[in-house]
Structures are given as structure tokens and as C-alpha cells.
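Let's practice the habit of predicting before peeking. Look at the sequence and jot down your guess about where helices and strands might fall. Then scroll down.
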Amino acid sequence: QVQLVESGGGLVQAGGSLRLSCAASGSIFSVGAMGWYRQAPGKQRELVATMTSGGSTNYADSVKGRFTISGDNAKKVVYLQMNILKPEDTALYYCNAALKDYTLRYRGYWGQGTQVTVSS
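Done guessing? Here is the structure:
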């Protein structure tokens, strides 16, 4: 019933920008947090940025000053504005949400991923 759908990925040159979007839909009681992870070939999936329902944000050191997470947990949407993109940002980006459905169980959900490729 619950799904997360990402959009906004693509191919850009180094120094360019992209804005990723993620929308959660389905039977959702409340959202605790939403965020973004990424996974590059041969590497572990890593946290990029998160935003809690209280508005607190957290960023990986590698993206601080370049990426900005925003959104509205009440509206079940989250964005990732990515500026000054670097080739090392190339990865499959996944939306993640910690939420409760109407069983009041707290679960983590993942989107299908959107590819970001940054060329030199």
C-alpha cells in the first residue's frame, strides 16, 4: 500500500545541479523522518541527507554546503537540491522514509531509486 516514488535524476556535467523529489503515498498515519541515500557501484549504500518531522537535518560530510534537503513530512514529500555536482556524486539515489501506517507500526520504506550521473 505504501510506496515512495523518486524523480529528478539524470545526466549532468560537473558543476551542474539537479533537484530530486520523493513523494510518499498510501495508507500513512504519520511520518517520522524522510531522507536520501545513495549507492555507487562497488560501494555500500550511504546516507546523504535526512530530515526529521521536527525539522532537524543531517548531511553527509561529502555533501555539506552543496546539497540541501527540504520538504514537508506532513505532506509526505521530500526534496534534495544538489548543486556543484561532482563525478563522485554519481550513484543511484534512494528515498527513504520512517513512518507508521494505520497499524501504528514504525517501519522503514525505500523508493526504487533514481540514477544521478555526473560527467567530467
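How did you do? The mean pLDDT is 95.
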